Amino acid sequence: MELSSQEIDAVLLSLKVSIWSVIFSLLPAIYIAYVLSRKKFWGRQALNVIVHIPLILPPVVTGYFLLILFSRAGVIGRFLDTYFGVTFAFHWFGAVLAAAIMSFPLMVRAFRLGFDSVDPKLEVAAHSLGANRFIIFLTITLPLIIPALITGAVLGFAKSMGEFGATITFVSNIPGQTQTIPSAIFEFLQLPGNNFMTVRLVCLSLLISIGALYISEVLASRLSRREQS
Amino acid sequence: MSINVNIEKTMGDFCLKTKFDADIGITAIFGSSGAGKSTLVNLIAGLVKPKSGHIKIFNKVVFDSKQKINVPVHKRGIGFVFQDSRLFPHMKVEANLKYSNRFGRRGRLSFFSEIVDILDLGQILQRYPGNLSGGEKQRVAIGRALLSNPKILILDEPLTGLDEGLRLEVIPYLEFLRDHSKLPILYISHSQSEVARLSDKIVVLENGNILEHGETLQILSSFRVAKKLGLRDLSSFIEATVSTHASDGITELDFSGSKLFLPQIDVPVGSKIYLRVLAKDVTLAIKKPEKISALNIIKGKVDEIVMGNGPGALISLNVGGHKLVTRITQRSLTSMNLKLGQTCFAFLKTVSVATSDIII
């Protein structure tokens, strides 16, 4: 019943990629969501569309763009490689980048719903008590959207765990390096006689996803119960 | 003067132009909805920028269009109590009260226990706002504003969302505030009885302009204001002192030398209460009527006569410095031959001072 080292690698890499993807996306997603929810400015719709592009494009196309921009020959990739020694293509960093970009719109959407639900009148009240805008954001707005933050982070995590198209296009499917659970399942399906391993990984990925969702629901309901008591 | 306002603001078709002073105590900003009350306080608080003019709070200029001074909201030192209390739902009552000290103006907490005592908040400090009653919420909001170390306080219709019972629960706290806080307080309201009971001075707004500005009780019974508010509700607001509870179920009150008789009121002897007397419920006579069933007979001098557009006329009596207004027909006016300065007697049936109009 023991997992093969290839399976263990895939599971660990998936977890690592998903967690980093959420961590990297968190602050920018909060910022963009806040701006989209609260600020009226020229180009707001354009920003909204740009954020959502990964959601509507075929993931392969997103992967292709990533390859063009971030491969060692790409515009940004060359710069990062020369000055920081960072390479994305065929490296697990690349999987994180692909997962982060694919899950970004989902996180922004969840956070934005949170910001929309916060009554700006509460912020005015805090303002009248002498707090400045930054303090108000930290002490009123952000704490009030914690349920949305949890939901968004879990959505981002789940999306990153499941990301396949952009990842395989951008960083390929190298066991131990860039092979996540979905790409491992894909590989096993290509070869005969791997049914058992396939089902095992499918079950594992189900378990992780449902587990994450469960934890987020528990956290969110505990929070709302605290405020009712 | 503690507050000095002289501002102009245009918003679409609406144009607000006001100039007034306010001092320690409660100054009511009174008017119907759309009169510009909220706009005015938003301008004073710094939530909206005036087009021109100036605002001074204790001689500190917080806005001046010529000098290009516009102090931001959080630095104006204005404590705000909103109609919808706006407590922070994720913080317990105690954290709400201490918010300003932690994150805002660094209000001193030396008054904390005092204010908790005055507003009776001790029992609810550890509760979340989600399960407080409307009255409790407003008390917390008042405490939170007071603890923010404000120079002035703005109460924006703090009782409007509350039902009658809760209103009576909160009013004594507001009176305490008025009498002991030494703060200039702007009290926004559209309720005549609230304003009559709580405020010393009043600014009556209409279409963004100040209609009247002065002593509350005088202005509320002035004909100019009455014409705008609707003559049907024209009333005198008089302050009377409870002198005796008689055994026949009648409470006797003193009103500047005259006696008033009301069906039993449940307040201790010696306490002051406000009565609202509708102008149409007052009848006039030249001589003191005898053998009449009405108990409340008040002697006064005619000091104003205004002819209405219809068949009615408004008469204002001076009763020992207080004002009592009545509404009679022009025909009666002619047949009685009433003149300015003439002494006459106003009488109102015991029942005509309806209990619901007694503002305690």
Written overview of the protein:
The complex is a heterodimer of chains A (229) and B (360). Chain A has eleven helices and no strands. Chain A has helices at 5-38, 44-56, 59-70, 75-84, 92-117, 120-128, 133-144, 146-162, 165-171, 181-190, 195-228. In chain A, α8 packs antiparallel against α11 (195-228) and α10 (181-190) runs antiparallel to α11 (195-228). The longest helix of chain A has 34 residues, at 5-38. With 360 residues, chain B is an alpha+beta fold. Chain B has two domains: 3-232, Rossmann fold (3-Layer(aba) Sandwich); 233-357, OB fold (Dihydrolipoamide Acetyltransferase, E2P), CATH 2.40.50. Chain B has helices at 37-45, 93-103, 112-118, 134-146, 164-180, 192-198, 216-220, 223-229, 330-336, and strands at residues 3-11, 14-22, 25-30, 52-57, 60-64, 69-70, 78-81, 152-156, 184-189, 201-206, 209-215, 235-245, 250-255, 258-263, 272-278, 283-285, 296-307, 312-319, 322-329, 343-348. The longest helix of chain B has 17 residues, at 164-180. The interface between A and B is medium-sized, with 22 and 29 residues.
Tell me the name of the CATH homologous superfamily of the largest domain in chain B. P-loop containing nucleotide triphosphate hydrolases
The general outline of chain B is globular
**Count of beta strands of chain A:** 0
Helix content of chain A: over 70%
Main sheet strand line-up of chain B: 7-8-9-3-10-11
H and E string of chain B? EEEHEEEEHHHEHEHEEHHEEEEEEEEHE
